[in-house]
Amino acid sequence: MSGEVLHRHRDLWPHKPVLRRLYGDWYREIVAWLVPGRTVELGGGTGNLKDHVPGVCCTDVVVVPWLNVVADAQRLPFQSDSLANLVLFDSLHHIENVSLFFDEAQRTLRIGGRIIVMDPYISWMSWPIYRWFHPEPVDYTQDPLVLKPSQPERRPFDANQAVATLLFERNRSHFHARYPRFSLRHVRRMACVAYPLSGGFDHPSLLPEWLVTPILGLERMLERLGRLLAFRMLMVIERQS
Q1: By the number of CB atoms within 10 A of the CB, which of 51, 80, 96, 161 ranks highest?
Q2: pTM over the 0.85 mark
Q3: Among 221, 236, 213, 214, which residue's Cα sits nearest to residue 21?
């Protein structure tokens, strides 16, 4: 089932020009935060990061022909201190035990290495959309760092869209206490207008392609109201000595 979703998204990609434009801008921002060295994407999905980062190792938990490695973020098949960057684009909230991933990130990243995360952000504006019009749940009662027993019946696309908001906003002090070697270098609350109007992969776009550029200009001004309006969150986390 999960492989079928990725194949469907990859087939839709050429027919979603507004979504391609938005993702292209986000990928370029991710690239700007990368440090030199080996870069691995976890939850690579449709493999679009390859267009922006030559040599990136794109991984996922399902087998699809355009990715490089099958890998579980909770048990990374990489040597200790061997990676410069770990990129998670719309994948952190799909990880069953987030603490196992951060343990693995702490092991595999060299000093100065970075985790770059793009994930849903739960604002006053985005909450009703994510809650009522998106198939993935929003659960604020969950502590993402509490280790849960593995569920054999769990599917790769099961998720909690509130994970990033809980970790890096509501419970940020808890994260820092658990992982003092990780420094949160950058947080950006973004995607206030264009992304919800784009329809994502599952709905028709309500935004004409010619209107994307002015809307993105407006969004930059609206980001100061990100806690109220944003639909996405970009985090850059650096491993310290």
Answers
A1: 161
A2: yes
A3: 213
